[in-house]
Amino acid sequence: MRKAVILLITAVLFFTVLSKCCDASPNDIRLKDLIILRYRVSAAGMTPLQRAVETRKRMVTVINGAPLRSQRITLSTRNGMPVIVANGVMLATVTPADARANAATQIDVARTWHRNFQMRLPGYQAWSRYNR
Most CB contacts within 10 A, which of 30, 58, 68, 76? Predict the structure, then answer.
């Protein structure tokens, strides 16, 4: 049953991305009409779409987990690359290719993604729990 609920939430998140905006991409990570991030390049052997799907799965884990406050969404480093972590779950890694694709430094991209996750993920978790 839990797997079915997780799959359903993942599907809802995925199709929300596709339906919200005329320039929506399946590579977008979006919550409440805000693009948190858009994967533009492959990394770690995954296409941008595969990276987006993996991030959505991890977001479902966070959303269904312990209560989340923005302070629990952190920016740290793993293997020399910036990562965004929420309640101990790594959500996204910013690669040098992500930085080039966004015409910015890795840390600038990471700070933007981190801020976007902090602004939206805790509120979305609370909203989804209230509306179950």
Answer: 30
